[in-house]
Structures are given as C-alpha cells and as structure tokens.
C-alpha cells in the first residue's frame, strides 16, 4: 500500500535519501542523479528559473534524455549566497507546487546538481563556465539587469559596474564580465564558445544580451569581442509562467504535502517557452516536453510582453494605491478589472499581432483568467517592483508606437499617471508605500513635484525621452494625474471606464 500524507507525522526534510519516503502523490525524479553531468550554468537562480527552464529540463530527464545537460547554479551578488546555502542543504532539489483554483499538486525536480560559491571576482563562476562540458550559460537577472540605456536602449557603458569590469576583466563584478572572462579562457585554450541564453522578460532578449556581452568585451579587448560575436550565439526567447515569491505560505504548503523544503516554489498551471533555435554548441530537446522552437520568437514575445507583462503594470500600481494585496485581489475588484480590460482593449491590443493559433483578444481572455486565479498569491508589490525598468520596457514602447501611428494614448497616459501617483508613496487610505524601485528616491521626489506640476514627471528624460514634448500624450497625462489627486484613484478609474 502506498504512502499518503496522513501516514507522515512530521514533514520529511528534502534530501536525496528521503525522496523514496515521500507520499506517493508527489512525483519525484525517476532518473539516477549520480548519472547526471553538467551542460548548463545558470546565473540568477531564483523561483522563475526553477519553475520554468529547470522544469523543462527535469521533464526531459524523466523521459530518459538530457542527462548530460544538468544545471550548475550561480550568482554574482552577495544575497545569492543565502539561496545557495538553502539549496545545498537539500541536495539542490526543489519542490514545485502547482496551484489551480480547484486543486494543488506537488513534484520534486532534480536537474540541478551544484551551486557555485559566491565570491568577489567570480573566480569559481569563470572556471565553471570555462569547462568544455558547459555548452549553455543561461540567465535570469531581471529586466533591469542588462545595463540598457532606458532612452536609447543601447548598451550603458557608463554604469559603474561596467566601468569596473572594463578596467578589471580578470576579476569582474557582473555576470557579463564573468561570461567574457570565461569565453576568453575558452578561446585561449582552443575550446569552442558556448551559447548565452537569456530567460528574462525582455523583447529581443537574445539581441540584448548579445549587445551587453559584446559591448562590454569591446571596452577591454576588441579582438575578443569580435571572436565572441563570430562564435557564440544568443538565441531570443519568450518565457511565461506566473511564479510568486516564496514566503511562509509557500513553505507551509510544502509541509502540508509532507516536505520540509526551505525554498519551495509555487506556480500557476500554465507554462510557455518559445525559443529561437540558435545554439552554437547544441541544446537539450526541449521541444519534446512542450517548448516551441521557431524562427519567429518576436511575435510571441510581443504578445506576451505587451498583454501580460504590460498588463501587470496596468493593474499593480493602482492595486497598491487601493490596498489590493495580490493580483487576484486586483482582478476581484470590479473597478480595477474594468479598467484593466479597457486599457488592454483600447491601448494595448491594437498594437499586438496574432501568432499561430492565438488572436490578441483571445490571449487577453487567457491572461484575465490567469490573473484572476485566487490560488496564486502573486503580490502587487512584487509585480510593481522596478517600475523604472518595467514601464520603460513594457508600456512606453506601446505609447511611442501609438504616437507614431496617430492612435490614442489616453489609456496608457492614465497608466503612467497611476504609476506617478503610486511613487508619491502613500495609499488612498493614507498607508505608506515603501520604497519599491532601485531609483525610488528620484521617482518619489518627481512624484511629489508632479502633484502640483504634472509635467515634472514626464520631464524624467531617462524614462520618457521626448514623450514630454508630445502634446496629446502630455495633456492626457496631466489631466489624469490632476484628476487622481483631486478625486482619487477609484473615481478616476470609473470616469475612464464609463
């Protein structure tokens, strides 16, 4: 008779030796982890990677494939050490908890076999990426982690981290500096280059990571930059799965399944991964477990980034202002839900092309259902974090396209006005919104100035470029921000929706 959760008095610590003792309802690795050898170094090993890229690899391994593509985790920031300690203590295993409105299920994944020490100069990381068996270096370092100038969208060579790495290429501070140092070592040893694969929510993420790696290399070694450009590959991809941050609730969920996991991951019951098939040193057969390999990643990523990621920014800021804790709470609020639908329909969907099997309005219906899933405790605060990168990446490109096409910018002007109001740092009920952006101090000062002079917000040229000079957009923004301060966010949403 199989084991059940009721048979267990206390949750079992997640370890290799306890896998066979877990309840039968939990799927565990069927492959022998001692047989796994590394093929991927992943930098920025957070929840999304473990619920997405690592899950696809795990599924391949469950099918008896890709056992020479195991993942070595890595990080370049001091705070990554805490995650390394948690995962090392449980043999790099992860509990994934799938949440639907009606049920939950759990599985343990084991495709990660090591996590490099976090150290100044990143010597261990450089050495690992220099090993011949590593054929892919992948990254999830957030949208704001690629050293992009927010206005020109070119490489930001003036950032302090970049200047450091250009001056100290053998002891870099950034992931990209470490990648360059490893590629230099491979070239000098006569080894082939590896693929650099971004898994972040950036349109053209492969082109962007190429821009950063080659741009940084060129600052210190132009010949190496040419070699990288000629020999490495940087595939574009679109990634999609809603993965909340882990807290006490998620740890308790794992314990309810009989697992004592210090870093479990919860996720929705939807995943999508669309990948450009451009890998200079081979790749796992991800398409066998549901990934889409295509030459047209752009259309898929434009739909997802504009409707989903842009949609997150549409509701998260007003959700913070109105005290909605989660994205599902926002969608349960009739005023926010109506606002979301109208902004998407009038301001975003007209600038999204269809992809095979999916029209933009049908994708919007799918996103509404996913956002409304009450089992996913995705906080508005997490989604609203780093608006200076997310608005410039997800919302403002649509504004510029609408301006160029002579279309309406009314809806997105209201979205930007709500962001400005949120950055003033107080909710409608008087509660404090804590700092939630790497540039919060500057945003907060501009937001307070914009209370009486709305143009002050749009004059942040590093965010808005010349949009402040567009009369139609700036007048719409001024009108909405003035109304928000005068009448309140909820009344303004209702005025917009009618």
What's the CATH superfamily of the largest domain, by name? NAD(P)-binding Rossmann-like Domain
* CA-CA gap between termini: 61 Å
Q: Structural class, judged by helices and strands?
A: alpha/beta
Q: What is the percentage of strand-forming residues?
A: 5-15%
Low-confidence stretches: none
- Number of DSSP strands? 13
Number of domains: 2
Q: State the CATH class of the largest domain.
A: Alpha Beta
Q: Give the helix proportion (percent range).
A: 40-55%
- From the alpha-carbon coordinates, what is the Rg to the nearest angstrom? 23 Å
Q: How many helices in DSSP terms?
A: 21
CATH architecture of the largest domain: 3-Layer(aba) Sandwich
Biggest sheet statistics = 5 strands, parallel
CATH structural fold name of the largest domain: Rossmann fold
With strands numbered from the N-terminus, the spatial order across the biggest sheet is 6-3-2-7-8
Mean pLDDT: 95
Protein name: Mannitol dehydrogenase family protein
Pfam families: Mannitol_dh (PF01232), Mannitol_dh_C (PF08125)
Domain Mannitol dehydrogenase N-terminal: 39-288
GO molecular function: oxidoreductase activity, acting on the CH-OH group of donors, NAD or NADP as acceptor
């Amino acid at each position: 008779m199989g084991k059940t959760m009721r048979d267990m008095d206390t949750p079992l610590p997640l370890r290799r030796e306890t896998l066979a003792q877990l309840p039968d309802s939990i799927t565990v690795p069927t492959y022998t982890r001692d047989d796994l050898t590394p093929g991927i170094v992943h930098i920025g090993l957070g929840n999304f990677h473990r619920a997405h890229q690592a899950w696809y690899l795990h599924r391949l391994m469950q099918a008896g494939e890709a056992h020479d593509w195991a993942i070595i985790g890595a990080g370049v920031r001091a705070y990554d050490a805490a995650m390394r300690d948690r995962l090392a203590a449980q043999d790099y295993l992860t509990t994934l908890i799938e949440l639907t409105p009606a049920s939950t299920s759990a599985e343990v994944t084991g495709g990660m076999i090591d996590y490099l020490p976090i150290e100044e100069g990143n010597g261990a990381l450089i050495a690992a990426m220099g090993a011949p068996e590593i054929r892919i270096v992948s990254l999830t370092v957030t949208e704001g982690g690629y050293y992009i100038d927010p206005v020109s969208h070119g490489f930001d060579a003036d950032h302090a981290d970049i200047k450091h790495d250009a001056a100290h290429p053998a002891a870099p501070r950034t992931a990209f500096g470490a990648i360059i140092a490893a590629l230099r070592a491979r070239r000098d040893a006569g080894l082939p280059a590896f693929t650099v694969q971004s898994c972040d929510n950036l349109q053209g993420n492969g082109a962007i990571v190429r821009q950063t790696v080659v741009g940084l290399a060129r600052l210190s070694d132009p010949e190496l930059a040419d070699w990288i450009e000629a020999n490495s590959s940087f595939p574009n991809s679109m990634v999609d799965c809603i993965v909340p941050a882990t807290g006490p609730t998620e740890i308790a969920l794992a314990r309810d399944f009989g697992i004592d996991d210090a870093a479990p991951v919860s996720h929705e019951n939807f995943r999508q991964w669309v990948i450009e098939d451009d890998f200079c040193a081979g790749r796992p057969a991800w398409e066998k477990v549901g990934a889409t390999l295509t030459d047209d990643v752009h259309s898929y990523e434009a739909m997802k980034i504009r409707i989903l990621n842009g949609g997150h920014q549409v509701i998260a800021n007003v959700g913070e202002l109105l005290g909605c804790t989660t994205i599902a709470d926002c969608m349960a609020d009739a005023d926010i839900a109506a606002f979301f639908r109208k902004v998407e329909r009038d301001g975003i969907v007209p600038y999204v092309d269809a992809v095979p099997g999916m029209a933009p309005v049908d994708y919007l219906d799918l996103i509404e259902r996913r956002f409304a899933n009450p089992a996913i405790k995705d906080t508005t605060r997490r989604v609203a974090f780093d608006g200076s990168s997310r608005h410039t990446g997800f919302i403002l490109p649509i504004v510029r396209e609408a301006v160029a096409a002579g279309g309406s910018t009314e809806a997105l002007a209201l979205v930007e006005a709500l962001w400005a109001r949120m950055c003033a740092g107080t909710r409608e009920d008087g509660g404090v919104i804590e700092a939630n952006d790497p540039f919060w101090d500057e945003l907060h000062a501009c937001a307070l100035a914009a209370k009486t002079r709305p143009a002050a917000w749009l004059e942040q040229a590093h965010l808005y470029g010349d949009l402040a000079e567009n009369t139609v957009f700036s007048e719409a923004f001024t009108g909405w921000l003035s109304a928000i301060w005068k009448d309140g966010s909820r009344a303004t949403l209702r005025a917009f929706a009618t």
